[in-house]
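User: Can you fold this complex?
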Amino acid sequence: MGYIIIITGFLLVLIGLWGILSQKNLIKIILGFTIFDTGINVVMVSIGYVKGKTAPILDIISAKDALKSVVDPVPQALVLTSIVIGLGVSALMLVYAIKLHHDKKSLDINNFKDLKW
Amino acid sequence: MVTPIYIVAVILGLAFLLGILKSSMTRLGSILMIGGLVFITFVSGQWLYEFLVNHRATDIIYTAGFLPPYAINLQMGLNEAILTTMINIVGLLGGIYLLDSLKKTGINSMAIFIVFVMSLNVIVMTRDIFNLFVFLEISSIATGGLILLDNKRKAFQAGMKYIIATGIISNFLLIGIIFSYYFASSLNIDGLIAANLMSIKGGAIALFTIYVSIILELKPFPANGWGIDVYTASNPGISALISAGSATAALFVAYKLMPMGGSFWLPYFAIIGAITFIGSNLMGTRQENPNRLLGYSSIGQVGLILMIIGLSPYLGKDTLLIGFSILISHYAAKAGLFWLSGIIKSKNIQGWSALRKHPYLLFLFGTFIFALIGFPPFPSFFGKWNLIMALAAHGQYAWMTAILAGSFTEAIYLFKWLGYSIKLEVPEDITIKFEWNKYLPIYLMGILLYFMGMYLAPFTEGGVYINFLPLAFVFLLFALDFLPVYVKNTLSIAGIIWYMVRLFPLLEHDLMREIFAGIFLGGAVLTLVAGYAKKGKRPGFYPMALLMFSGLVGLIEANTLLEFFFSWELMTAGSYFLIIRGKRSMPHGYSYMLFSIGGAYAILFGLALAYASGLNISLAALGHITQLTTLAYTLLAVGFMTKTASLGLHIWLPGAHGEAESDVSPMVSAILLKAGVFGLMLLFFYMGTGTPGSEKLLYVLGWVGALTALSGNLGAVFQEDAKRLLAYSSIGQLGYILFSITMMTQLGWLAGFTYTINHFMFKAILFLVIGGIVVKLGTHNMYEMGGMIKKMPYSFVAVLISIIVIGGIPPLSGFAGKWLLYNAVIQKGWYFQGVVVFFAGVIAFLYLFKLIHSVFLGQLKDNHRNMKEISAWILIPSYILIIGIMVFSAFPQWVLKPIGNMLTVYFPKSLYWQGTRAFTSLGYWDGTTTMIVVVTAFTLLLGWLVIASKKVKRIGQFNIVYAAERPYRPETTHVSYNIYAGYKKALGFLVTPVVETFWENVSDMVLDFSGWLRRIYSGNMQNYALHVVLFIVVFYLIALGGL
Amino acid sequence: MIVAIAIVLSVLTLVGAFMTIHSKKLSIAVISSGLVSLTASILFLLLAAPDVALTEASIGSGLTTIIFFYALNKIRQNHD
Amino acid sequence: MDYSITKFLWTLLGLFIVTNWGMLMSSTIRRIGARVSGRIGIPWYQPWVDLTKLYSLKSQVSHGTMFYLGPVFRLMGGVGLFLFLPMIFGSWHWSNYSFSGDLVLILYFQLFGMLGMALGAGEGGHPYSTIGVSRGLAQFTTIEVPMTLAVISIAIQYHTLSISQIVAAQQGGFFTWTVWTNPFATGAAMLSLLGAFGHSPFNLIQAPNEIPIGPPTEYHGVFLGFLRTNNAILHVAEAALFMNLFFGGATNWIELIVKTFLIYFWSVFVGMVFPRFRIEQSVRWFLKIPTLLGILAIVIFL
Amino acid sequence: MIKKILIIGLLAGVGLIFFNLLQVYHVPTELNNKLGAYYAENAATQVGAANIISAIVVTYRGFDTLGEVTILFLAASIISFVLKVRKEDIVSDRFTSPNSEILIYSSQIIVPVIFLVGIYIFINGHLTPGGGFQGGAVIASGVLLMMLANPSMKVSHNLVAFVESISGIAFVVLGVLGLVLAGGFLDNRFLPLGEFGTMLSAGALPLIYIFIGLKVGAELSNIIGTISYNQNEKNS
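Assistant: Here's the predicted assembly.
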């Protein structure tokens, strides 16, 4: 199962990247990013997965045999942070998109080339 | 001691507190912001002090009360203290600078600002890789916000590009982090280092994703379009912070993470750094927008430092010093430049000429530019020096070439820019208004650069010997720049004389240095005397002149390779400013600088090879070059030849000397060119004839010298501009000198010395007098002059004597050179070169006649009827030099005998003296007798004429068979306009500007290439994202494709 | 069994992701991306990560989607 | 180094002889020239008559100091050439002040007079004198190329630049003259001599038949006298120089007179045969055949 | 078209990287990662929290969490100053669409419940799944609902800002207290660890998590509020 999910995660990353690199609509690109983020998160959590073990919460199992019965808590802790960061970044991008649209009345990425060379 | 965790706590507390404040309380907000920045600067500064003064051991700060790797820890060592202090200082100064903008945008932006600075601190200090990721995210989100400070359309686009790119990068970083954790069971950097990921299967890929992300954070070429747009579009204050602060932090991250991968990744770092350094600077050459230009430059500099990190195996313990030296220069200069751009607010670099009205700002601008290029006394000079030396010591010539090539491309645009700002007309639409909060940070950065230069000098091998005394004097003069000319002039002369008195006893038994010291310093005094003729204040003249002379005297005093190069660069800088003072000298000053820098890099390369041959920093190392011996000597020679303006490298000279101010021309022609001669002589002394390849090199250089003489003189023949004519003449004369000393015989060298001394004297006279006349008549064109002998008899005599010397006509001292040269050529067997040289010598006669005739003889022009003699202050030094010429002519043995004796140490003796009579195995010559005979005969003949023609009637100007010359539209009818038309028909093909065309094509090619290259920056953010991914994939395939 | 659920969810996630990128209408795309987060959060549960699942569900599929809609709404208003 | 009065007087005597011989030579040559073209020509004493007339002219005008000094420089050039040249081989009396310097000194001292003349004429303010001077200088530069090559060739051949020693090396008889031992150098030098004497085809400098210009028209009276005197000295001295270098020198005055006459006549002879060159033609010409000869003269010693 | 092919090639390249990573990845059957094992073994005794993840997030890696909160803070700040409403941009009498009565009234009942749930989640963060972030998100969704029900309602900016700031400052102050009173910045053990598994256990951890929850809730509300508020901004 770990394999399946980690592969799913990687595929999500690729789909997200595809969206970022190929879509012309800014909103789509940002959605690509959320997919990208989700994929990364799935991969990270899969890394901490240990076959047949439970969540690292000790009110279910006693503290003594925690070591034998829980999955790795560290990636999960990291993913928590990552999800929140992803939200912040997405929100920021959306605000940018709003502003850019406000400016040019378009979401086409090819319209924002005022800066070059 | 305040633990650095308070940097985080206090700033976040303040940031959150700022959120409560009402939007109208901007004043309180800004006080809190500045207070917070002052506090963190204090904290980091305090640690820096502890490390530097009390040599405290590195401190580890634990969070959460657990040891790493279980909890996050920070580290505060010397490196961290230095970098956080740097970041906080630029943060504080940037905060002060941005006060207005931040107030306008609101309190939120202040909070973002301080959080940004804080995040950079943590990035530097943290030892946990995921924590690093979090704070990198904070810094990039804060950057994304701060870009919008000006609420401009372009800023939003740039911000979007930035966020997209960093978004991709940080996700890849996360993949790297999680897999590192998976493979190495640690998130702590030290733990990851200990785990040695490279030895774990798959660890290399994890490392790759981490490294590629960190490198991408550094905006490597070409995946950096987003970074450049940020520099371009954001408020200059923010760009300064990004360039000086973020880049610093990100570079340290690369350095910090470097040990994780071991030596496998370092070459890639170096290659990427080199590509970035060169590519980015190359693109800068076509850039006109100042902020974008600075962006290119920033990225280039970061590439250089990344390269240094990558090359650390070769640099050993010096890595940090070198990296820091270059970093601090980049840091201060780039921050200062961005801040300046915020004051000037010009859309293109031409607009920076607004600085002309603000000399102190202009001075700072120059300081920043010179610091970026790596001129002394700035830290980057020492950094580059150490870098090149260390690389040479390990035989890494390709890297050296890359670094120098990149630096050169950087110089191309930076000096174009500096030239514009010094010379272009002040634009009317740009006004610079004084705001203390914008001026102060710039000044402080300028001061920091000088301070750090002095501070870092002793850390370089041989750096303790550098004599900063002359530089201090230069600064004194700069400080006294408000005084009138005569005070500063007197002060300068007094200073130089004092230095001479101090210097000469130290030079005993070293005749060569004494002669050159005499030329440099004596010439300095004489040419400065002419400065009394100037009125007003001459802002900036004296510091720059003295800067050049300090460099020159430093060359004399140098005992080590470092001192020599240090002085060489000082001299170049000073002379650049002197040359560019002329009215129309901008393009010439520019090409002078480019040739000088190219030459300096050739010299640097050669010196590095010398150093590498025996790890010996003393100047004597030039005598024992074992690494690439021939190349080393060739490079050194070429380097020096850029200063002597030898054929192929001469195109800068006519304009530079011709357009310079009237008393600057003699300085740069009579005196400065001798620096190249000094270098060549020194080089040949050490090289000798025994070293492999030296015979061939000398042979080629001999031909170059001969052809230089020919082309220089021919060029002069067809000039209509008096000063350019003299400038071409200098090229020719320096060709003789090069030719003479390449013969490597006693006679050849004697001839070389004779030419050197003579050229010093007569070219000083000529440029002084002709320069004075040009100023007086208000034209350079000889065809607008004429008949001046009546108005300026003293000038005429001075010029007459000078041209007799140039022509080599007995009995004056010019003949000594010719005679020695004849003997030397026949003795050496270089007959054909010799013929070319003698042919050139006769051609000299053509331009000399043209000069003296067009200016002094012929018909007096109507508008010059009320002319008076030129200022006595110009004539006095000229006549002092004439006395010198006379003494040298009548008693050549006084000079040539000691020189000959000195030379016998190096060459077999071939010139003998018998009283006043010199003889060689071929011929003989008696200067004193010749003088006596000629003077006697001349007096007798004159007496006869006086007796025979008692009643000579002076007649009027037009009392001749007058025809065809019209005083108006003078060039159409002035008889000496295009006087050598027939000669041109016959031999004009020899002066086809082949060399000029060649260099033009080279520069066109560079510019075209740069224009083609920068098409990748299409402005489309998606393409930039594509570049980022492309970079990752290509890097992966190259580095790990075989896995 | 659990593997089968994982496979189904994975396929759902991927289809959602694909829809997000390729749907013509932005609103459908946004909803699809919310769906991706939702299925992903169930995947997290399967991986014994209830904390992450909770976060992903509330933040990833909840808040993010809402913010997207607000943004779309604003853009539409702008467009008129 | 002999600065004695005796030496001075002997030199003065030599100078007197040379001057007179120069004048005689020029009148003779002009007569020959006239006869060749079917005229009678001037009487042999004509130069003395001219000179006397010039020196006794009462009214002289000057354009200024340099104009005044020009003839002095010019004459000094000729006299100097004479002074530094040993006239008669092996004779202390007629070696003049040649101990001052060797061949190089003489080569460069030629310029002294040219410069003075150029400047003097320049101050006259007449455009044509400037044109004349510029042409002269232009032509002179290329004349020097074969000459330099020849001199270097000789220096290689005899390992010396001292004229006395060069002459000494040719004292073995007719066939030890340089003209036989080093024909290329001689050829180059003799061709450049044509230019140095400024006869046709290289007389565009003075262009006597076309425009009334140049120093001869600007100067008159004593000034012109100086110039005429100089011409006389210079022609002999230059011919003597070539004689010393290529034709075995002279051990007595007769030999000197014969040889200098023949050398001088060579230039006149060529002038009668060839038409005048334009300046760019002559400039190029000297860089062709004479230079080639000069190069050959050196190549044979390589 | 060329670009598409290039992108596909690039994705194939990225896929190659992932494939290579997968080749060395295997699903472990034992928790043999040293760091993870250490936390599993010692989190309960050292920190006193039943939820090991909370222990890691708030204590062991509390510094990260501080950064995370800062990121949200930054995002909120940036959004608010980018979408700053200038007085002249506001249409004075805004057109407000009437909402369904059901929505308005049900929201009045549901919103307090949602708030309670959110608070519950972060108060029990050290014991059960969930914590400050999740709770904060739930609170923010409550705010959202309020706005849906009444579009003209202005989220009291001052209140939100106040909560946000005070909780942020409290977070920092608690961290500093840990530094002063216990082993290091953000050390939760300056309060007694208490009895394992109860509400008042794990030292200052619950306290910190509460403030995190409040802060995240306030920040998210702020973001939503700013974006939605500007829905009504006049088009210029």
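DSSP finds eight helices and no strands in chain E. The CA atoms of residues 155 and 212 of chain E lie 20 Å apart.
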